[in-house]
Specification:
This protein is mainly beta. About 0% of the residues lie in helices and about 65% in strands. The protein has 1 helix and 14 strands; from the N terminus they run E-E-E-E-E-E-E-E-E-E-H-E-E-E-E. A 14-stranded antiparallel sheet has the order 1-2-3-4-5-6-7-8-9-10-11-12-13-14. The longest helix is centred in the middle third of the chain and has 4 residues. It is globular.
Length: about 210
């Protein structure tokens, strides 16, 4: 942390993310692999909300997300990929400060792919929620809402002239909490559409 509320960077095993502020808002996130910048995301705002996310990759190609807030609980977005102009659009729905549902549609020739995600949460505060500007740049990500994700359900369907196929995958998360009432550990168990079970564990460490 740079001060009591602004985040300066997140470190990983082989890299990091560095955050740049412009007043109250995060204006840029730079992703590093060791000491090399491999991706930057620039944010533009309409009032207090992000309206455009521009991702620049190491080869200088760009992916642009245009965000259109219908109201406080409903967001529509369009993805513009200059190198791969396949139309991608989506909608997000929010409940009590959390991303509760996403619908993502990709049309490629005769095939329309639809991905619907539904999320459930606990009543405990997410450890990132009070970081200045962090929630605003992560409105498409359930892991950084007001509370902690306890269940995710993904429904996938593919429609073409040959018909429609669909599948469902689920995951559940449980948490252990420390004295400050924020997660110390998250255990996620998943079940893929083909019945394969997975388990992952994430540990949280705090410097204050």
């Amino acid at each position: 942390y740079k001060n009591t509320s602004e985040i300066s960077e997140i470190n990983f095993l082989t890299g990091k993310k560095v955050y740049t502020y412009d007043g109250e808002n995060i204006s840029k996130v730079s992703g590093y692999d060791k000491d090399k910048v491999i991706q930057t995301i620039d944010y533009k705002y309409a009032g207090s909300r992000v309206s455009t996310m521009t991702t620049t990759l190491a080869d200088n190609s760009k992916i642009i997300l245009l965000l259109d807030w219908i109201d406080d609980t409903h967001l529509k977005y369009t993805k513009v990929d200059v190198a791969n102009p396949v139309p991608v659009s989506g909608e997000c729905f929010y409940t009590n400060g959390n991303l509760s549902k996403t619908v993502n549609i990709i049309k490629d020739g005769d095939v329309t792919s639809t991905f619907e995600n539904n999320y459930e949460y606990d009543a405990k505060q997410n450890p990132y929620y009070n970081v200045k500007g962090f929630y605003q740049i992560n409105v498409l990500t359930p892991e950084f809402g007001k509370n902690n994700v306890t269940k995710s359900t993904m429904k996938t369907s593919f429609t073409s002239s040959a018909g429609t196929t669909s599948s469902t995958a689920t995951s559940t998360s449980t948490y252990t909490f420390g004295s400050k009432n924020v997660p110390d550990q998250q255990t996620t168990k998943g079940l893929s559409a083909n019945g394969q079970a997975t388990t992952s564990i994430k540990n949280y460490f705090y410097n204050r």
